[in-house]
Design a protein that fits this description.
binds magnesium ion, six-stranded mixed beta sheet, binds adenosine monophosphate, single chain, 26 strands
């Protein structure tokens, strides 16, 4: 469906992107390297855990219904072994946390509630319940239970479960290979002193980190001039070697904006302009199986475009189930002028004592002002309308970082 030069609403742009992206192939990695990868098959318990009833306290394994005032200590049961000594009425076995309950016993009396007399133990506890201080078989996991769904990133808890089940080879999705290309004759490297009319290339560094955070393997990053032949060569090379190519700059309608026509020639450009602010010029193209995002040059526009569109594509490729964040309602703490496109204001969101989320923006919202993204834990979504938005009004926000306490200056 050609979208022409219509300004495309972001949700339609996302639908188009998601139609062109598939999860990457599955590969096996050693358990040690599985952290932060995305699990490609559900993790299913192959046994009950714990496999034996286990003590949850240090103390004495006893029979709960036994009313003997004191018990003979007939053995010891430490974690990591299994005694065959059987607990009978009038006897107890000394036990440590995590150790299997000896035969005959059905409860553990904590050591704090006991007193030693020679080779006997006196129980100072009026009533002992069956199963007290015992973790029954399967209390933690049940055989055949789905523990972790496919498509889940492997964090500390998930890798712990993989280890517990002895899964030393882990099926994960291949990581997306990403290249990052900054374009613009005005750009110099950060180590260089900009001459007249020059600026340092910042987008390359921002986009490399953003891509890595999204789970990508950044295989190349560099800079290219505003020269069609040179850009075309660079793009062809990068496309051959990448699942996703990110360019920044050169996608507007200036004399030196060549990215779109090169992409048109190499593959299919699916859209080029969006009904959003910042980030109106944004090209999305496919060349074979490779996705190319021609992001705008302005640093904020490039990063907002990345978060809204590239992130979703990377997550699908990486096999993740949670592809898009769900916006939440927030209450504005100051007036916000309305515009003619859906605006992604960089904002700070915090919760009050009753859990209501409040929001303010991070000051001037110019699309070159990278500082507006520093400390921004949300994008406040401001739909176009005639009248300004007022303090106290409810709008939606996309949460992009941890929610902390109220800021000291609620409005700027
Ligand atoms: P363009 O989209 O090429 O017209 O660039 C828009 C604005 O973003 C211009 O002010 C550029 O100088 C600036 N810009 C483009 N690329 C970068 C970059 N890699 N790092 C920082 N600023 C950039
Ligand atoms: Mg440019």
């Amino acid at each position: 469906m050609p979208t022409g030069d219509r300004l495309l609403p972001p949700h339609e742009a996302l639908e188009i992107i998601l139609r062109h992206v598939r999860p990457l192939p599955v590969e096996q990695v050693p358990l040690e390297e599985a952290g932060d990868r995305v699990l490609a098959e559900p993790l299913i318990a192959d046994r009950d855990l714990p496999p034996f009833p286990a003590a949850t306290m240090d103390g004495f394994a006893v029979i709960a219904g036994d009313v003997s005032p004191w018990r003979e200590i007939i053995g010891e049961q430490f974690a990591g072994s299994q005694t065959s000594v059987e607990v009978t009425p009038g006897t107890a076995v000394r036990i440590t946390t995590g150790a299997p309950l000896p035969p005959g016993a059905d409860a553990v009396v904590p050591v704090e509630n006991t007193e030693l007399r020679d080779d006997h133990v006196v129980i100072h506890q009026e009533h002992v319940e069956v199963g007290e201080n015992v973790r029954p078989v399967g209390a933690d996991l049940r055989k055949d239970q789905v523990l972790v769904e496919a498509g889940t990133p492997i964090g500390p808890a998930e890798i712990g479960l993989l280890a517990s089940l002895g899964q030393v080879d882990v099926p994960v999705f291949r990581r997306p290979r990403v290249s990052v290309l900054s374009t613009g004759d005005e750009l110099v490297d950060p180590s260089e002193e900009p001459g007249p009319g020059q600026i340092r290339d910042s987008n390359r560094f921002s986009l490399v980190v953003a891509a890595r955070r999204a789970g990508a393997d950044v295989v190349w990053s560099g800079r290219g001039p505003d020269d069609p032949a040179a850009l075309r060569r660079l793009l062809e090379e990068r496309i051959a070697d990448s699942d996703i190519v990110l360019t920044s700059g050169g996608v507007s309608v200036g004399e030196k904006d060549f990215v779109k026509e090169i992409l048109d020639d190499l593959g299919t450009v699916h859209f080029r302009r969006l009904f959003m602010k910042p980030g109106k010029p944004l090209n999305f193209a496919t060349v074979g199986d490779t996705l190319v995002f021609g992001l705008p040059g302005n640093p904020v526009s490039a990063l907002v475009g990345f978060e809204v569109f590239v992130n979703a594509a990377l997550r699908v490729m990486a096999g993740r189930r949670d592809v898009q964040p769900r916006p939440v309602p927030v209450v504005l703490t100051h007036d916000v002028p309305s515009g003619d496109r859906l605006e992604f204001q960089r904002g700070l969101v915090w919760a009050d004592e009753s859990g209501v989320l409040h929001a303010r923006n991070t000051g001037p919202q110019a699309s070159a002002r990278l500082l507006s993204l520093v400390g921004a834990n949300a994008f406040i979504l401001i739909p176009p309308r005639e009248t300004p938005y007022r303090a106290g009004e409810r709008v939606m926000a996309v949460i992009r970082g941890p929610i902390g306490p109220a800021p000291e200056s609620p409005a700027e």
